Amino acid sequence: PAQITREVCDFMQMEVVEDLWSGWPGCPNHGGMVLARVVDEIAVWFCRSGDHILAAIGQLDEALERWQQAH
Predict the structure, then answer these.
(1) Mean pLDDT over residues 19-48, rounded?
(2) From CA 22, how far away is CA 38, in angstroms rounded?
(3) Three-state secondary structure along 53-67?
């Protein structure tokens, strides 16, 4: 299931990038676009610039909200 989620997110992300001409979603810490990956059998948004997991896929809004509250 995690691999299928990652593949769907990859596809949707490409569609959004083509429509917006901008990377989405982005890492608030590093500014770069995050990528869907599977880590420990969980589909996540991963920031390559900072080499960290931003959020589990499906929990991005909560993660960004926590980041905004902390900064």
Answers:
(1) 92
(2) 23
(3) EEEECCCHHHHHHHH
